[in-house]
Write a structure and sequence with these properties.
This protein is an alpha/beta fold. It contains eleven helices and eight strands. Bound molecules: 3-methyl-2-oxobutanoic acid. 3-methyl-2-oxobutanoic acid (KIV) binds next to strand 6.
Length: about 260
């Protein structure tokens, strides 16, 4: 798609079967390259706490951090739609969530806000979307709950947990979410959720049947010390960062990525 990407473009891509290519983005130099490489979505993720700030998890990221990076990315991005993460505890009640979501749009220039969690967020999503702000849900592995989950492993591996994941996904859609990120779940579970939902599902470690893929930019450029199983270094076979990002977009679009070795059974 050559047009400026909107939430309607993502919906259309799900309908037509065109895969959605997304990477995290944190600064203007990379965002310019990412837009040139025709990524559909740039995610200003709270993974910036780890890859930019050097923390061991995402919990210390503040609203001011996400606003700062969102503004830098949105100021230079012409084509891709920008999703910005709501940081840990910034959406702990619906009113607070609306206030902070509104800051990401007005101060950060984001188009969509992303929040982690299931049906307990229904009221929050309703309030945010009723105020004209699109919401992206995030289920499966939700890194902001790392202390509650007890680690960063694969989620929804039992029938009971897979059923709950599907119910949560439907609740988010019913509450008004426009899209969903599904992280680290078995491919078969992600496939069912993707087929069940009308909204686009963007996977990370969730198999090739999702409507699109997202990875952390620094992982695909080999900048992080540990390459997660679900990611891949796209720079090793390319001569430039731009070509590596273009190769990622191509492999997502033609479903070469993720392969079985980047997925969970
Ligand atoms: O913060 C982030 O980078 C994310 C992706 C890993 C989905 O939420």
């Amino acid at each position: 798609m050559n047009e400026k990407i909107t939430i309607n473009s993502l919906r259309r891509m799900k309908e037509t079967g065109e895969k959605i290519a997304c990477l995290t983005s944190y600064d203007s130099s990379f965002a310019i390259l990412q837009d040139k490489a025709m990524l559909d979505v740039l995610l200003v993720g709270d993974s910036l706490g780890m890859v930019i700030q050097g923390a061991e998890n995402t919990l210390k990221v503040k609203m001011s951090d996400i606003i700062y990076h969102s503004k830098i990315v949105s100021d230079v991005t012409k084509r891709a739609i920008i999703i910005s993460d709501m940081p840990f505890m910034s959406y702990s009640n619906p009113r607070k969530a609306l206030g902070n979501a509104s800051r990401l749009i007005t101060e950060g220039g984001a188009h969509v806000v992303k929040i982690e969690g299931g049906k307990e967020l229904s009221e929050t999503i309703k309030l945010i979307t009723q105020n004209g702000i699109p919401v992206c849900g995030h289920l499966g592995l939700t890194p902001q709950s790392i202390h509650q989950i007890g680690g960063l492993g694969v989620q929804a591996t039992t029938e009971k947990d897979a059923k709950k994941l599907k119910e949560d996904a439907l609740s988010l859609q019913n509450a008004g979410a426009s899209c969903l990120v599904l992280e680290c779940v078995p491919s078969s579970v992600a496939s069912v959720v993707t087929k069940t939902l009308d909204i686009p599902v963007i996977g990370i470690g969730a198999g090739v049947d999702c409507d699109g893929q997202v990875l952390v930019l620094y992982d695909i450029l080999g900048l992080t010390s540990l390459q997660p199983k679900f990611s891949k270094n796209f720079l090793v076979d390319q001569n430039s960062i731009l070509d590596a990002i273009k190769d990622y977009v191509k492999e997502v679009k033609d479903s070469t990525f993720p392969s079985l070795s980047n997925s969970y059974k």
